[in-house]
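fyi for ur records
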Amino acid sequence: MPQLFGFNKVAIRGPKPLPFIGTIGSLYKLLNDPVDVVMSLRSRGEEVVTLMDQNPAVIFVFGSERNREVLSQPAVFRHDEDLIKAPPETAMGKMRFGMVVINGDLHKRHRKLMQPAFQKSALDSYAPNIVATTRVMLEQWKIGEVSMVDDLCRETVLAMTMKCFYGLDIGKDAHELGHLAAEWGKTLVAPSTILLPFNIPGLGYWKSLKLGESVVAYLSAIIENKRQKGNEQKDVMWSIMNARDDEGKPLTEDELIAQSAALFFAGHETTAVTLAWTLFLLERHPAIHAALMAEIDTILGGRDPEVEDIQRMELLNRVIKESMRIFPAVPFLFMRVCAEDATVGGFGVPKGSNVMISPLAAHHDPVRFPEPKRFMPNRWIDMTPSLYEYMPFGAGARACIGMLFAERALRLMLPMVLQRFRFSMAAGTRIDRLTRGNILHPRRGLPMRIEAASASAPQPAPITGDIHQLLEY
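which gave:
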């Protein structure tokens, strides 16, 4: 758990704590609806703001310079090594080796060992599996029915991830591991688990410990099976298993399991929600959908995409960029903890303070992105924001290691979906946002009627919900 109490007052201002419930109430509000909190703090017009007035327990920074100041100093603003508290011998305890909780030389070593799994030659080798798995999964999408499209995207990306990360074909083992791991990830980041880390039956923390044991048992069996099988296997885990550092040493068994699980958490859900939000945006903007379909039809001519097609589909690339701008899958980066007394934007920040950076706030900056709530893919024709203005995968030394894999997967999967289906949402549908952990979901899902791609395009029906806080059309 991060340090949240016991700080002296600082000169950084923010809203007054909530009456009666004070610090606990402000922290719960942040965990429950961080989008509303960050957009409210951003509207103050200050670059450095506290969650609670003059309390440095949680500090938000805004603007590209402040983002750069924090993200370019990983030795000062470190990931929270106490984020996951559990006995070391437990599965949850093994996650202390995951990328989101290690720092310094250990982080550099792990990142270097994992990097070959995400270089261009490796990405090219995964592409056929991305396409083949997606093709099989899309056969299960039912035309003529109203379905939760976000769930369909999640199942499809889950199958793709199981194949590319672990070499598992669509089937019982892949399905069970995927769902166990996804449930474990949700439980780990639930507010109740974070605020009540007690091993008492029925609590989220207790459930996390139990789910973790099942996931680690699966992963250990996969690793052992790969060792027994030998030969070259074209998946992420095989690459990481066989990586060696400058001294010829591999990751330990616990490190390998932690990084394999962390990659799944980071790569599966974020790619799925990005795909789902993009389909939602295209349903809301039929003219952009029509232009994108014309490009896809011209370049692909009805066939499934290949790696060589990606750069040719320029509008597709702009659509995905703009989708990740409006609805970044990760609206908030993991909190950074000050390892020493520091300065941000001219303000003194004491050791132990927790600093938060929001890609969502950066992407909705009206100065850098005029009309930030409007879905306008063509803004990307002549716009090249800096690394600290547009950062759907973070920025700096700790940017998402799987960024290129996710981009490749989205650019192969989205055309395949659009070639087969068209989507429409019923009038009055309520679409609200929900942030759990640091991932932006539709709170009640995305219920849409699925028709064949050749079906005529209806005008988008009016919908309701707090999604309009982020989107205008």
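The two ends are 41 Å apart (CA to CA). thats all i got for now
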